[in-house]
Amino acid sequence: MRIVSGIQPTGNLHLGNYLGAIRNWVRMQNEADAGECFFFLADLHAISQFQQPAELARAIREMAAALIACGVDPARATLFRQRDVPAHSELAWLLNGVARVGWLNRMTQFKDKSGKNREGASVALYTYPVLQAADVLLYKTTHVPVGDDQKQHLELARDIAIKFNTDYETELFVPPEPIIPPAAARIMSLRDGAAKMSKSDPSDMSRINLNDDPDLIAQKVRKAKTDPEPLPADPADLDARPEARNLVTIYAALADESVPEVLARFAGQGFGAFKPALAELTVETLRPIGTRLAELQREPAELDRLLAIGAEKARTVAQPTLTAAYRAMGL
């Protein structure tokens, strides 16, 4: 079993990133039967939209520090910068000869990200699902953790793998299977329970950043949008209360409990009682992450060393696949 996943280094990580993806990365690397895990900073994907160079360089290093602070262990998982393994870009170009325009036209992420200015979007934004396919096919990945917004791209990777194998009469690429993370929490904005927690939201009060200090975390929880009703005993009663549902979901995810278990403890209580409990739980969960993150940010040379080790291992694994792809195509 081989797992591959990447994350774009485009700003501070927040609680939604941690509970929705990174915590599951840590769990996968720590499971004895998980096999190998390759986790990368998707800096080549990041430039599909313009990034200020100095800010991108800072964000890449900060993202590496945050992942390690959250528990990604470079001794147990292969952690690297995408750009440090040129085979990603090389294989993506080879796969562009296999991917079909009609397949890319069906990708909803491009429509969402380009908005009304499709003609002004970069070519990279249009073709980045092919690079994503290269990211996973390069390592003969068996499983990829995906959320709802990435299922379509994994299907594209499978289609590309099957078409390449068929066209060139080879069994080179493994069509990867999805891993739907268990109980992956969908964390919403603290200001709007209908919108995902996002680092692009202009309001910093809408999210809890992993580098927020304990006082700021507690303040954000206290000021999170709610309603005047007490918490119900039945989870179904939260369906029409998105802000209440979001705070209960956050508590359940942090406590490793189910929503019914949380409601069994707090049913009938108002947010005057629930928010302090949630604030304390959030602060204590994130405290060691914040401490370790601050330490790592003071050690840029050590971060670079760890990423270089990961890149060397990734290049070693990737090169035979790339060489075989060239050979299969007659190049």
Architecture overview:
It is built from 13 helices and five strands. The chain is mainly alpha-helical. Helix 7 (123-137) crosses helix 8 (151-167). The mean pLDDT is 92.
Topology:
Elements: E1 2-7, H1 15-30, E2 36-41, H2 43-46, H3 53-70, E3 78-81, H4 87-96, H5 101-105, H6 108-114, H7 123-137, E4 143-145, H8 151-167, E5 177-179, H9 214-222, H10 242-255, H11 259-266, H12 271-297, H13 300-328
Helix pairs in contact: 3-12, 4-7, 4-13, 7-8, 9-12, 10-11, 10-12
Brief write-up:
By secondary structure, this protein is mainly alpha-helical. The chain contains 13 helices and 5 strands.
Q: Which spans of ≥5 residues are poorly predicted at pLDDT below 50? A: none
- SSE succession: EHEHHEHHHHEHEHHHHH
Total number of strands? 5
The oligomeric state of the chains shown is single chain
| End-to-end C-alpha gap | 30 Å
Q: What portion of the residues fall into strands of 2 or more residues?
A: 5-15%
Based on CA atoms alone, the radius of gyration comes out at 21 Å
Global structural class? mainly alpha
Helix content: 40-55%
Specify the overall morphology: globular
Strand order of the largest sheet: 1-2-3
Biggest pleated sheet: 3 strands, parallel
**Average pLDDT number:** 92
Number of helices: 13
